[in-house]
NADH-ubiquinone oxidoreductase chain 6
Amino acid sequence: MTSCMMLSMNFLFMNHPLSLSIILILQTILISSLTGMLYYNYWFSYMLFLIMISGMLILFLYMTSVASNEKFNMPIKLMFYSGLVVLFSMILSLMMVDPLLLNNFKNSFNMNYNKEMNTHLYLSMNKLFNQPSWMIFILMIIILFMTLIMTIKISGIKQGPLRQKFSKS
C-alpha cells in the first residue's frame, strides 16, 4: 500500500508521457496483485490488468504520435528517493507479513480438485459479482467506454491520421 501511495506522489512530479504511463502500469500491477491476494483467485485482477493496459495502449499510441521526439529524462534525486522508499516499504511489509495470508497463497498453488475446493472456488468467483465489487465492474466498463469516446473525439475521424507524413518532392 505504501508503494501505491509513493507512486501516486511521483505521478504528480512527472511531466513526460512515457514516465506517466510507466507509473500507471506499475500502479496497475500493484493494485491487481493486491486484489488477487484479497479474493484468493486472480481472475478479477487479471481482468483489471487487461482492461487498464488496453486503455493505456490507446493513450500511449496517441501520446507517441503527438510528442514523438521529445527528450525523456528523469531527475536523479527523484529516482534515488523513490528507490529508498520502495526498499524501505518492502522491508517493512516483509516484517509484517500475515502468516494466514501466506498459507492461503501457498494453498492456491497446491489445489486438490475435490468437492470442497470446487465449492470454495465457486463461492470466491461469486464474490466478484456480488454487492461490494459489482460497482468496480461498472466503473471499469465506464472508464473503458470513456477512453474509447475520448480517443475517437481527439483523433478526428474525417481529418486523417494523427501524424502526417511529409513526402519529399
